[in-house]
Design goal:
Number of helices of chain B: 20
Structural class of chain B: alpha/beta
Strand content of chain A: 5-15%
Largest sheet of chain A: 6 strands, mixed
Shape of chain B: globular
Number of helices of chain A: 8
Strand content of chain B: 25-35%
Strand order of the largest sheet of chain A: 3-2-1-4-6-5
Shape of chain A: globular
CATH topology of the largest domain in chain B: Rossmann fold
Number of strands of chain B: 29
Oligomer: heterodimer
Distance between the termini of chain A: 48 Å
Structural class of chain A: alpha/beta
CATH superfamily of the largest domain in chain B: P-loop containing nucleotide triphosphate hydrolases
Order of helices and strands of chain A: HEHEHEHHEEEHEEEEHH
Strand order of the largest sheet of chain B: 7-15-11-12-14-9-8
Helix content of chain B: 25-40%
CATH class of the largest domain in chain B: Alpha Beta
């Protein structure tokens, strides 16, 4: 009954191999960790990760909750999409806001993007993980996003203080992940490590994964600041004297806090058009993120402190 | 560049069609510090247009600050990620890079070329289908080249590109290239690396990387990128018999029991007969379940969920295999081990071994030899240090299904994990099962430990006294045994000095001998506990790992670790046997507390502070503890 492989299923395509690897990683994390959680940022990478996790455990329901670390400054469309997704798929969602940050009135305008991100994202994530005792947090980060991520393991060990030590990472061979840890220690698990931005978009198209509409071009009110197009998503965005929002046809390549996320002018209103634009583009995905430009190697510094 | 123009809709549709079906190739680049490895990868990213304007701007700035190429763009800076390594001008770990052409997506493992090389390269090579081995045309085949090639072959890579770099610096001389290639082929043949494609290139200038350079008209072969696009994938796994390591049992309700995992080799269809290992039970595959509907067939590489037509007990770590071509099951085998940690590997120490989805206890028994990766010579060794490679026998506490690594990486590769620190300390490649493991079976006996102990009116257990030499372990153990004997209990005392005169007289005091010393004593104690006795073990037993290995041999509640806690200064001032004086004079080597460490227990069942209680009082405390624990509660 042993037979020739050639007569059988054809060789897997790159998307199929990536999908199979990610599903393997997700299952390993759930099997090896006691209290895992999936970080859900509402963006396209989160959407792909969620889709893969649902596939990994089908027909059983998703065996872990989602955690949204909410800075309270996300786009309104993101909140609406989040709530609709949770309802549609019957998921368990935990929303965590750093209440101390709220009490101190932390916001991106008076305190700058760096402090805002530190308090409302990095510290907030640590609070949420500690409060619920999660020992593994699955996230949609990819190694191609940024140079310091290229070296991070798929199962990335964190000390009880949530610190990442890039010089003391466990060697990761084959697809064998060492998820052993002591009480208080945890893992960040990155099932999409080997995906590129283009892979993500191709997979979204292939699987028809729903996304926040902000990824597609539409007329939106924006103001131009330091060369970035910032959307006036609500009345909290302070306008300079004489500054008037203008209607432009724009979309976003990444989604975060709206005052910190630059839009690009675009006509791409379908997945295919977005991919076409990517093929012609001359700037990287993170160029639209204000936080990455704060300091040289800023992502590395943030990660050492526990940023995802 | 093509990217500057927006493609038309028809073009996009054609592009999407082609790109959805393209294949994936994973490769590793190996080279010494100055061979230009980062430059080559940077060049590949740049030429395949994976570098964007904002990254180019950053690169221009970085080149001025850290670059080694003056005003030119330094391609290496595109890939050297962390701040620290940029400042040192070297990469420090394994980094993964991505690029794609119209025909293929590529994942590159980039590893540094300095002292931690073996560890990083083995990690990067473990998932690679092909290796690009860089040589500086000015230097030719070096010791490092041979080392890299050996490691590549060891990790199961069969295709290599010999990238002879910096051809611009030798005037693009054909003779130079050909003499390097001849040198290399002679060596590659010896290690079984047969499929070698030599390419002369200049990564800094881009010659023969992605475009055929005019500088070397004598070279008619493909560019590096063209070769990478055309290199065949590994077809052997798809053609091999079906193997599915079970990762997760999917049980949403009483009606569904699916077994999920990634197919390690072969393919499967509903109706085909499979055998579950290690249990050996058989069934037929009922369904191949996915969220997109059931599959009619699934092949190597795919993550699937299968259901069976019979109710069989299958758990995480089991293997589902083609019934007519099932692999071996064994608990002892020979393996190559690559040591990945600063703390050396000791023979006889118990580690955890993860293979597939299964984690078991593993002990490395005799270390046959160490391999010198520069000369390929075999030398005798008793331990493996960081980056050492050795051939050993590995013994497991339970049988696993496996295949030789050469045949299947997923079923023949394993990692070793330190039981205390949880660090990944070693990587192993299984060669074959040792025949012994097929023949020895545990004899199931009707008269068991409980019965033997009940006859004696006690519960069997071991009292493990640990502490420095001169701490008072033997005095306390003697007094405990006397009190128990007076109560009519059946006991035996294993004392370090006495055992070393007989059973363990072949062992010295080096770390690996200490490990073996404790292993034997723990096994003897286990047999005695099985005989129903209360066993006292009075051994320095300085290492936590061995005490925890000993503890693992016993059932919960059977092992009492008693820490006889005496400060070094106090033990040394007593110096009943005069050993500390000898050790201080350098006449005794590896003496615990002096030039060999003592690792105090973290959670002993009892701690006795001998600066506060006498030996008699200590014995009273232990005997009272045993009574409270129900060991001697009966009579």
């Amino acid at each position: 009954m042993t037979r020739e492989g050639s007569a059988r299923e054809a060789q897997l395509s790159h998307l199929e191999r990536l999908e199979a690897e990610s599903i393997h990683i997700i299952r390993e994390a759930i099997a090896e960790c006691e209290k895992p959680v999936m970080l859900y940022s509402i963006g396209k990478d989160s959407a792909v990760l969620l889709h893969l996790a649902i596939k990994a455990f089908f027909p059983a329901p998703l065996p872990l909750p989602l955690l949204h670390v909410d800075t309270t400054w996300k786009f309104r469309d993101m909140y609406a999409f989040r709530d609709a997704t949770v309802r549609r798929l019957g998921l368990e969602l935990i929303v965590h806001v750093n209440q101390e940050g709220i009490a101190r009135g932390i916001n991106p305008f008076t305190h700058g993007s760096q402090l805002h991100t530190d308090v409302m994202k990095t510290q907030a994530l640590r609070q949420a993980l500690d409060r619920h005792g999660f020992d593994a947090a699955l996230g949609g980060a990819r190694r191609d996003e940024e140079k310091s991520r290229a070296k991070e393991r798929i199962f990335s060990f964190r000390s009880a203080q949530h610190r990442w030590d890039p010089r003391a990472q466990r060697p990761e061979l084959w697809s064998l992940y060492n998820a052993r840890k002591r009480a208080g220690e945890s893992f960040r698990v990155f099932p999409l490590s080997n995906w590129t931005e283009l892979d993500v978009w191709q997979y979204i198209r292939r699987e028809a994964i729903p996304l926040v509409p902000l990824y597609f071009a539409a007329e939106r009110p924006v103001v131009e600041r330091d060369g970035a197009l910032i959307m006036v998503d609500d009345e909290r965005l302070p306008l300079a004297p004489g500054e008037r929002p203008m209607a432009r046809k724009v979309r976003f390549r990444t989604l975060g806090c709206y005052p910190l996320t630059g839009a690009i002018e675009s006509e791409a209103d379908t997945v295919e058009a977005v991919i076409a634009e990517m093929l012609a583009t001359r700037s990287s995905e993170r160029a639209g993120r204000v936080i990455d430009h704060d300091a040289a190697a800023s992502m590395e510094t943030k990660k050492l402190e526990g940023y995802f | 560049m093509a990217r500057a123009r927006l493609p038309a809709a028809a073009e996009v549709a054609a592009w999407l069609e082609a790109h959805e079906r393209k294949s994936l190739l994973r490769f590793i680049t190996c080279g010494s510090v100055d061979d230009g490895k980062s430059t080559l990868i940077g060049r590949l990213l740049y030429e395949t247009q994976m570098v964007f304007d904002d990254q180019l701007a950053a690169l221009g700035e970085d080149s001025r600050r850290f670059g080694t190429r003056g005003a030119e763009l330094d391609m290496a800076l595109l890939v050297d990620g962390l701040q620290a390594e940029r400042e040192q001008g070297i990469t420090i770990d394994v980094a993964y890079r991505y690029f794609a052409t119209a025909r293929r997506k590529f994942i590159v493992a980039d590893t540094p070329g300095h002292e931690q090389y073996t560890r990083n390269m083995v990690t990067g090579a473990s998932n690679a289908d092909l290796a690009v081995i860089l040589i500086d045309a000015r230097k030719g085949v070096l010791t490092q080249t041979r080392r890299h090639s050996y490691l590549v072959r060891l990790l199961g890579i069969r295709q290599a590109v010999l990238a002879v770099n910096k051809m611009d610096l030798v005037g693009y001389a054909r003779e130079r290239f050909e003499s390097i290639v001849a040198d290399y082929r002679a060596f590659a043949g010896r290690i079984g690396l047969d499929a070698v494609t030599p390419i002369p290139l200049s990564a800094a200038l881009g010659e023969n990387v992605t475009r055929a350079g005019g500088a070397m008209p004598w070279y008619a072969g493909p560019t590096l990128l063209a070769h990478l696009e055309a290199a065949p994938g590994d077809a052997r796994l798809a053609a091999a018999p079906f193997r599915l390591p079970v990762q997760w049992v999917n049980r949403p309700n009483a009606d569904f029991r699916g077994f999920a995992g990634q197919i390690a080799s072969g393919s499967v269809r509903p109706g085909e007969r499979v055998r579950i290992l290690p249990s050996g039970r058989e069934a037929r595959v009922a369904r191949l379940v996915t969220a997109d509907g059931d599959l009619t067939e699934a092949a190597a590489g795919r993550s699937v969920t299968v259901t069976l037509d019979a109710e069989i007990d299958v758990g995480r770590g089991d293997l589902i295999a083609a019934a007519d071509a099932a692999p071996e099951v064994a608990d002892q085998f020979e393996a190559t081990i690559v040591w990945l940690h600063e703390e050396p590997m000791l023979q006889g120490r118990a580690y955890l071994m993860k293979s597939g989805a299964r984690t078991v206890a593993a002990t490395v028994t005799p270390l046959k030899h160490r391999i010198n990766v520069d000369t390929l010579e075999h030398t005798a060794a008793e331990r493996l240090e960081l980056n050492d490679i050795g051939v050993c026998e590995v013994e497991l506490d339970q049988p696993i299904a496996f295949e030789p690594y050469e045949r299947n990486r997923a079923l023949g590769g394993f990692i070793l994990i330190d039981r205390i620190t949880n660090a990944t300390v070693g990587a192993g490649l299984i060669h074959f099962a040792l025949r012994r493991s097929h023949n020895i079976h545990w004899q199931a006996l009707d008269v068991d430990k409980q019965l033997r102990a009940r006859q004696k009116g006690q519960r069997a257990c071991v009292l493990w006294l640990t502490g420095l030499s001169g701490a008072g372990k033997s005095s306390i153990a003697n007094r405990i045994e006397k009190q128990l004997a007076a109560q009519g209990r059946h006991t035996y005392l294993l004392d370090g000095d006495n055992v070393r005169h007989g059973l363990n007289k072949d062992l010295g005091f080096a770390a690996q001998d200490r490990v073996e010393n404790i292993r034997r004593v723990a096994e003897v104690a286990r047999l005695m506990v099985d005989a129903g006795l209360i066993v006292l073990v009075s051994f320095i037993s300085p290492f936590r790992a061995e005490r925890s290995m000993a503890r693992a041999l016993f059932a919960p509640g059977e092992f009492f670790e008693i820490f006889v806690d005496t400060p070094l200064a106090v033990a040394e001032s007593r110096d009943v046997k005069g050993l500390y004086r000898k050790a201080r004079r350098g006449e005794l080597r590896n003496f615990t507390g002096i030039d060999s460490p003592y690792e105090a227990p973290e959670h002993p069942e009892m701690r006795i502070d001998t600066t506060r209680v006498s030996a008699d009082q200590a014995a009273d405390l232990v005997v009272a503890h045993l009574k409270a624990a129900g060991v001697t509660g009966g009579a």
